[in-house]
Structures are given as structure tokens and as C-alpha cells.
Amino acid sequence: MGGLLGVGGGFVMVPLLVLWAKVPQHKANGTSLLAIVPIAIVAALVYYFGTSRPQVDVGFALLLSAGSVVGAYFGARSASRIPEAQLKLAVVVLMAAVGVKELLFP
């Protein structure tokens, strides 16, 4: 889903890139995903080394990473085949669904 819709920071970054910076939807998704790489690395290192006890389950993180890499590959491949208007609609629908869920079930 991250590769397809640009999530993982993308709930703020992607709409801002599309609406304010006038970046095309596909490029906004890819840019958002690349921008979160250094953020994730720094945050993970702080959680691991910056506390008295590491706050990272490395084994579980590796499992999550393996699934995420596969999912990101297929999601990004899928997103590149979706027309711009339909991809924008998918992002809007996902964000609206999350917003409604948060309003009804915080």
C-alpha cells in the first residue's frame, strides 16, 4: 500500500506536494517514500541506541521489512500503471476512510 498510495509520512507530505507544490501524483508518492528513508533510519537508531534499553525488536523488524519490500515493489509497479486521476482518487478515498474511522472509533 505504501508504494501504491505513498503512505508513511504520505498522509501529510503527499497532499502537500500535490496541492501546494503542484507535483504530479505519481511523483509525489515516490518523493514521499524516498523522503522518509533518512527519517526512518535516524528514528530507528535513536530508538535502538538512544535509550537505556533498545526499543526495537530487530527480528520482528526484519520480518516486517521483508514483507514491506515485497509489498512496496508490487504497489509501486501497480501505481505506475494507474492513471493520474484514478491514483488521486485512491489517495483521497483512503485518507477519507482513515479520517472517518478516526472520528467514529478514536
SSE inventory with pairings:
Elements (H helix, E strand, L loop, with lengths): L1 H4 L4 H10 L5 H25 L8 H24 L2 H21 L2
Fraction of helical residues:
over 70%
The helix tally amounts to 5
Uncertain ranges: none
Distance from N terminus to C terminus (CA atoms, Å) equals 22 Å
Largest sheet: none
Order of SSEs, N→C?
HHHHH
Taking Cα atoms only, what radius of gyration do you get, to the nearest Å? 16 Å
Q: Assign an overall shape.
A: globular
Give the averaged pLDDT, no decimals.
88
Counting helices, strands and paired strands, the structural category is mainly alpha
**How many strands in all?**
0
* Beta-strand proportion: under 5%
Keywords:
106 residues, mainly alpha, 5 helices, 79% helix
Structure characterization notes:
With 106 residues, the protein is mainly alpha-helical. The protein has helices at residues 2-5, 10-19, 25-49, 58-81, 84-104. Helix 2 (10-19) runs antiparallel to helix 3. The chain is globular, with a radius of gyration of 16 Å.
